[in-house]
Amino acid sequence: MDTFPGRIMHSHDFRDAEEFRNKNVIVLGSSYSAEDIALQCNKYGAKSVTIGYRHNPMGFKWPKGMKEVHYLDKLEGKKAIFKDGNEQEADVVILCTGYLHHFPFLEENLQLKTRNRLYPPKLYKGIVWQDNHKLLYLGMQDQFHTFNMFDCQAWYARDVIMNKIKIPSNGEVEKDINKWVAMEEKLENPDQMIDFQTEYTKELHEMSDYPKIDFELIRKHFKEWEHHKVEDISTYRNKSFSSPVTGSVAPVHHTPWATAMDDSSKTFLDK
After folding, report:
1. Are residues 127 and 89 in the same domain?
2. 10 has which bridge partners?
3. Are residues 158 and 204 in the same domain?
4. Are residues 70 and 50 in the same domain?
5. Are 6 and 32 in contact (CB under 8 A)?
6. Which whole number is the average pLDDT over 177-198?
7. Crossing angle, helix 215-231 and helix 190-206, to 10 degrees?
8. Which domain CATH number covers 79?
């Protein structure tokens, strides 16, 4: 990588796919950021987009100009050589290889250290630090649910701080963490993962006075969304869903995603 004449960057620094028009783009990773950045680069006119997976391919039906190959083995000048023998000219390598939990401002014995998981060990209810119940972590999970889960976590954390929720004995805390971790480790596919995180968020919801929300509708929508991606990775963003709070259905966007080239808020909100 030290001798690669092109650009190497992390997905964290990705801002605009227009930069990579007419470029040969290598994307390393097999999760949301790899999927999203690869599709954006293809949409905005990259010459080619090659996705290198480490363990398991995403396996979608990629549009013309995109392919998924086994992980990068080496770079020779501007040539990327992959472990399955594929070779590809490369102008830029984008590392969509995930993020690390990093809390340098905390004492060592308070730092959450985990890979990306739906249920990180040592967090009671996914929030309360097992070894010190005055330390609360929010949003540490890999996510299907996002804002409703963060909200439920915040409501729960608020009630812990205000002593409305009492943390049980150390033995009960450990037993509860082990139960959720064991369930998470048996998950095999996205449908099971969606069910797991829905049940986790439902439990949090029931433990506070967070406003009413239709979790079964959320579960249904997530599975529809996942299946839309399998059907056509280029069109799943064009679908519309209903609110689990109000029940109102969102309007379908005025322009299909593949041809919506202006991302400004004004254009997005135009009717």
Report:
1. no
2. 95
3. yes
4. yes
5. no
6. 96
7. 160
8. 3.50.50.60
Residues 247, 159: Cα–Cα separation, whole Å? 28
Q: Could you tell me the residue range of the domain that residue 182 belongs to?
A: 101-263
> Which alpha helices (DSSP H) does 7-143 contain, by range?
32-43
The verdict on 252 and 140 lying in the same domain is: yes
How would residue 98 be classed by pLDDT, with cut points 50, 70 and 90?
Answer: confident
Q: 52: which 2 tokens?
A: 């290198």
- Evaluate whether residue 1 is within a structural domain: no
**Inside any domain, residue 178:** yes
The whole-chain average pLDDT of the chain stands at 94
Task: Report pLDDT digits (tens) over 199-226.
Answer: 999 999 999 999 999 999 999 999 999 9
User: What integer pLDDT is reported at residue 2 of this predicted model?
Assistant: 86
Residues 180 and 251 in one domain: yes
Q: What is the pTM of this model?
A: 0.86
Cβ pair 6, 90 in contact under 8 A: yes
Q: Diameter of the chain by CA atoms? A: 61
- For the chain, the domain total comes to 2
Same domain flag for 60 and 175: no
Give, in order, the Cα–Cα distances in Å from 240 to each of 112, 144, 145, 231, 259. Answer: 37, 17, 17, 16, 17
Residue scoring higher pLDDT (115 or 219): 219
Angle, CA of 264, 23 and 44, to the nearest 5°: 25
CB 55 within 8 A of CB 81: no
pLDDT digits (tens, 9 = 90+) for 141-160: 999 999 999 999 999 999 99
Strand, helix or coil at 16?
coil
Q: Are residues 210 and 76 in the same domain?
A: no
Distance CA 122, CA 135 (A): 11
Cα–Cα distance for residue pair 152/127, rounded to 1 Å: 11
